[in-house]
Structure formats: structure tokens, C-alpha cells
Amino acid sequence: MQTSSKTAKLPLIVSRPGTIKLSLRAVQQYVFSKHHVAPGSQANQVSQVAQSLFGLHAARLPTPYVTLHSRLTNYQTQDLRHSLLVRRELIKLRCMRRTLHIVPLNLAPVVHQATRTFRVAGCIRTLRSLQISSTTIEAIRQIVIEILQALPRSAKDIHTLIAEYTDRLTLHRVRTTQNAMDIRAILKLLWEEGTICYINRSERWDAEVRFFGLTTQEYPQLHLDSLSENDAIDQLIYFHIQQYGPVSAKDIAWWSGLGNCSVNTVLAKFLDQRRLVQVTATGIDTPMFMTLSDYEIFTAFQPNQEQWLNLLAYEDPSLKGYFETRCRYVDRRYYDLLFNQIGEARASIVFCGQIIGVWDWDKKTQTIHTRPFEPLSKNQSSWLVAAQTKLEEQLQEDALQGRLF
């Protein structure tokens, strides 16, 4: 997929005093290099990619595996499971936009505390609508903790075992213990507040066997409440700008799920502290931000000038990190082809930093179908076939083996 190994320093365009205008081409190459997609930028460790992307989007089971496939050298599907279940250097939890992400343990307190309030608030609303009292919630909480002291359990097993505590529940005047919906709602609350954690024991990349364990027991080195909410929000926004910049205020609010007011307040503070640089880019007049340290790296960045093509996952983090400035990687004419009705980014084909089509996985035939937005050049077609074949072989191998290791 390579045509040249020449390098050149990226151009900066200064449009008027005080305003730095960047080349959009430079921005595209820089971000996809930071995210390990461009040639020569691939990582060696799963945790390195999860760190650079500020978590792997994991709402759909295949997404993190495909995300890593395009970003790791010699990637094997079992690498992710090993990092999650064996090395325990990653954890899967809900955070930004109440969406499942797989994050390194050092980032877990940041994403958890910064988003905890609105995630827990949603659970409380559900519990109130089910008319579950605080007494019931607390009684079930203590029982679940006792049940999980021995080992992780499935939600079904937890519900079954709760029945053995009938006498204690009667003492607390709990009347909802046999209602599976009520138990699920309480477990959701315990998960969102960090008391219990999610464990997927499936040995397949395309299947889920959901268990819950005590967070303190499964991850003894992890302290989800080690930050205050305000400190966590500050770090969440700063790290997002660092890893995804240049980004706009609305990009940050979209990615994080935080309100515009919270985002703008933190941005104003960072600007006062001179921690950020404000920029625009060719074709994007919206004010955007980079951290000062990242901007300094950008000005010295010299990308490899070879052309390249890669396949990105459904809801790939490199696309999901933007909303207002998503025209940086796709022509506005193709928004409806790349994004579905609720704004999710379909699995895509990226060529030199620009999305040129979409693809999907056919479970029945175990093959990839591609749909370019426009006719491809001869070179683009050959690169697409190579990328498609490589990913197909990886997914087919895992499907045929029926297990990850």
C-alpha cells in the first residue's frame, strides 16, 4: 500500500495576527498518526492504542477488535482478551455518552468520575419509575456484595441467589426481589457507580458471556473514586484535546457527553492558563483547540508521504471523536452514507486521512462487502483488496476456530 518513502515538514498557514490556520491535509495525517492508523505509526501493545485513543469504543462486540486490527503490528485477536482478562491492564465500563469503552486502568478513574453523575442519574430515574425504594436498593446492594465475594456471577445467577436471602429481605420489607427487571435495574446502578464491574468470559470476538464481579476484588490496584468530579472533568477534556486535537468545543461535548456549559467553562480556564492554542484549518473556520505541548509536536511532525488505505471499525474512535468538525475526514456530500440516523459512524474505508467509502461484515458468508462513495483509482482498488483480504482472513480464522485461544 506504499508508493513513496519521502518525508516533508507539514506547512502552517498564518492567516492574520493571532490566528493560526493549519493545513487540513496536515491535520488529517497528524491525527491518524497519533491514532496509529497511518503507515509507520502502528503500535506494539493493545494498551498503547487504548491509551492513545482514550479508550476503545466497545458498544458493539466486533468494534474494539477491528479497531486494533488496523493499529497494531502483528495483531492477534486474543491479544485484547489477554489484556482484559489475564493481564487485567484494561477494564470495560460505561463512560463517555453512557457508552461502553475499554480503557487502561490509569484512565479509568478519569472517565468514570467525569461521567458518573449523569450515568447514575439515569439509573436513579429508572429505579424511581419502577417504584423501588432506597431501602430495597441498599438491601440488594449488600446482598450482591456478599454473593460476589466468592467469585464473579452472571446476572441470572445473582438473581437466583438473591432468593436465598428471603428472610433478610422480609426484615427490610423488600417486596421486589423476585422481579427480574428490578434486579437488573439495581445491578445497572451498582455497575455505573463502580461497585461491580463487567467481565466478558466469551472466547469468541463476536459473542458475549456477561459476568459481574466486585471491582475492588477483580481490580485491587484500581481506585475509581481517586479523583473528584471536577478534577476528572478537567483531565477528561484536557486529555481529549491532547489526543484528538485540534477539536472544537462542540466536538468535545459530543465525544464526552458533558454539557456545552461545562466544556466551555473548562476551555476558558485552560486558555487563561495558556495551556491551549486556538487554531482553524483549511475549509474549517470553526475555532479549534490543541494543547500547547501537542501543537509543538505538530509543528515538528514530518509524516511519511506514501499513500495509504485502511479499514476502520464501526464507530471507530478516530471518527467518533468529532462532530462539529467531522468534515475534516469526510466530504459533507457523504455524511448520510457514513453516518446512520442516530449519528453512528459506519465501518469505513480511509484513504490518506479521508473517508472514501464504507464496508460491512456478512456473518453468513464470512466476507466483507465494500461500498466506495466514488469509483476508485487502480491503486486504490488494489490497496482496498489487500486490506479487505487481510481483515477477512483474521475474522474468518477466529470464526472457524470458534475461540480466541
Q: Any overview of this molecule?
A:
The structure is a single chain. The protein is an alpha+beta fold and 405 residues long. It has 2 domains: 12-104 and 227-399, no CATH class; 108-218, Arc Repressor Mutant, subunit A (Orthogonal Bundle). Helix content is 44%, strand content 17%. The chain has helices at residues 24-34, 46-52, 63-69, 78-86, 108-129, 134-148, 155-162, 166-171, 180-192, 215-218, 229-244, 249-256, 260-272, 292-300, 317-320, 335-338, 378-401, and strands spanning 12-16, 19-22, 56-57, 90-94, 100-104, 196-200, 210-214, 276-281, 284-291, 309-312, 348-351, 354-362, 367-372. A 4-stranded mixed β-sheet has the order 1-2-8-9. α11 crosses α13 (260-272).
How many individual domains?
2
**Fraction of helical residues:** 40-55%
Strand order within the widest beta sheet: 1-2-8-9
User: What order do the SSEs take from the amino end to the carboxyl end, as H and E?
Assistant: EEHHEHHEEHHHHHEEHHHHEEHEHHEEEH
**N-to-C CA distance:** 30 Å
Question: Into which percentage range does the β-strand content fall?
Answer: 15-25%
The DSSP helix count reads 17
Tell me the major beta sheet.
4 strands, mixed
- Indicate the mean pLDDT: 89
Q: Unreliable runs, pLDDT <50, ≥5 residues?
A: 1-17
By DSSP, the count of extended strands is 13
Q: Any idea what the radius of gyration is?
A: 23 Å
What best-fitting shape do the alpha-carbon axes yield? Answer: globular
Helix/sheet category: alpha+beta
